[in-house]
Each structure stands twice: as C-alpha cells, then as structure tokens.
Amino acid sequence: xxxxxxxxxxxxxxxxxxxxxxxxxxxxxxxxxxxxxxxxxxxxxxxxxxxxxxxxxxxxxxxxxxxxxxxxxxxxxxxxxxxxxxxxxxxxxxxxxxxxxxxxxxxxxxxxxxxxxxxxxxxxxxxxxxxxxxxxxxxxxxxxxxxxxxxxxxxxxxxxxxxxxxxxxxxxxxxxxxxxxxxxxxxxxxxxxxxxxxxxxxxxxxxxxxxx
Length: 212
Ligand code: B1M
Description:
Layout: H1 3-12, H2 16-28, H3 33-53, H4 59-80, E1 89-95, H5 103-114, E2 117-121, H6 128-138, E3 142-146, H7 155-165, E4 173-177, H8 183-188, E5 193-194, H9 198-211
Parallel strand pairs: 1-2, 1-3, 3-4, 4-5
Helix pairs in contact: 1-2, 1-3, 2-4, 3-4, 4-5, 5-9, 6-7
The site of CO-5-methoxybenzimidazolylcobamide (B1M) has 38 residues, from helix 3, helix 4, helix 5, strand 3 and strand 4.
C-alpha cells in the first residue's frame, strides 16, 4: 500500500497518532504537501463522508476521523503556507449559525494566513450578529462564511442582511464557501465572492484587500 493510501486508511479509522507519523514520513520522503492533503487526508475524509451518508459509520467515527485529519493538517500547515508575509488585510472568518463543521474553515484560515491576511476566527455556530460586530470592531475588509449543510447555508443571507442593517455593507466584502454553496447561491443572497476551495478563497481575499 502506498503511503498516501495508508494515511487515508488510518484517517478512516481515526488513528490520529498513525496519521501524524505517516504524514511526517511522507513530508520527509519529499511528497508535496498538497498531494498529501488531497490524496491522503482528504481522500480518506471523502470515503468517511460517503460511509456516513450511507449509514455505514456514525457521528463518533466521523468525529475521530476529523480529529485525525486535523492532526495531519497541522503538520502540513507550514508547508502549505509561505511564512512571514506582510499582513495585507483583515478577515473575519467563521462557520455559520447552526453548523459545527470546521475542517474546511480551518483550511481556509490556514491558506489565508499564508497569504499574509490577519484572520480573526470566530469558530463554529457563529450568529450573523457576531460576524458583523467583529467586522465593525476590527475594521475588517472581509467577512468569510463557511457552511457545510444545506440547512445552514441560508444563514449566509442573514449575514448579508445584517451587514446592510448595520450600515457596513459597502465597507466589507462578503465571501461564502463550503460544499453545498455555489456561485449562483452567492449571487442570489447578495454576497460578493464564492470560491470552491481554501486556496482560491485565500487568493481572492488577498486580491480584494489589495483592491480596497
Ligand atoms: Co457532517 N455532514 N453532519 N459532520 N460531515 C456532511 C457535510 C454531509 C455531506 C455528510 C453526508 O451526508 N454525506 C451531510 C450534509 C448533507 C447536506 O446538508 N447536504 C452532513 C450531515 C447531514 C451532518 C449532520 C446533520 C449529521 C447528523 O447529526 N445527523 C451533523 C450536523 C451537525 C451540525 O453541524 N449542526 C453532522 C456532523 C458532523 C460531525 C460533527 C460528526 C463532523 C464535523 C467535525 C468537524 O468539522 N470538526 C462531520 C463531518 C466531518 C462531515 C463530512 C464527513 C466531512 C466534512 C469535511 O470536513 N470535509 C461531510 C461529508 C463530506 O464532505 N464528504 C459531512 C473536508 C473539508 C476539507 O471539506 O468542509 O467541504 P469542506 O471544505 C472545502 C470546501 O468546501 C471549501 O474549502 C475546503 C477545501 O479546500 N470551503 C470553503 C469550506 N468553507 C469555505 C469557505 C470559503 C471558501 C471555501 O469562503 C469563505
């Protein structure tokens, strides 16, 4: 079995220690960080996702797989991002109200920090009011919302509405993303930028900050 398949297999079993060791081994062998992420960690998480959908595994198994995923991505972080870049802007980031998924959001944070953005991560289950008050307090140029559930992506509309209500809509760029989110959804709720993955979210955020 290749090392990437082994990482995927251990991740599916939630064996964080083995995942960490193998990710380090893959790094030492010179395998690119993005390949380890895509073909090892994310590949394992996608298999878990399918099994979860088919009721072959349940929340506890998915949670320990998520923990193993985080253990692996922590090691990749310094390689995925270029360190020591000058801050180009401020981002308020969070997973929307009612939604507890944070792996994708954490990747977005990692990639944004790598682009020199200062990221204030509000965590999970973030109400619209919290995004807006943080943006006001911090003078952030960007609000970035992540959602993984079709039932919670609608919260993003409330973030846009709340920004309008609080009079900051013209001062902030609202970015949206997460598996069920699309470009047309972004447009329909009046948000500004949709990106399908963490790397493009970081590039678009840096470009928007430079342009503002
Ligand atoms: Co949940 N879950 N989950 N889950 N879970 C999904 C999302 C699901 C698709 C599984 C399935 O049925 N196949 C399904 C959603 C169905 C739907 O709405 N369409 C689902 C469900 C139903 C649920 C529960 C309702 C299950 C239940 O309790 N009955 C429940 C809801 C809890 C809640 O949030 N209120 C639930 C719970 C959980 C756990 C807590 C067990 C766990 C989360 C642990 C954690 O995050 N710490 C979990 C997990 C892990 C998953 C799956 C398996 C993996 C998600 C993940 O982390 N993927 C997922 C199935 C799947 O996706 N295959 C599933 C890896 C991650 C890197 O991808 O987050 O998509 P992702 O991020 C991507 C892009 O989307 C993008 O960048 C990343 C890649 O670079 N991106 C952005 C993300 N945010 C962005 C923001 C941006 C731009 C890009 O700009 C701002």
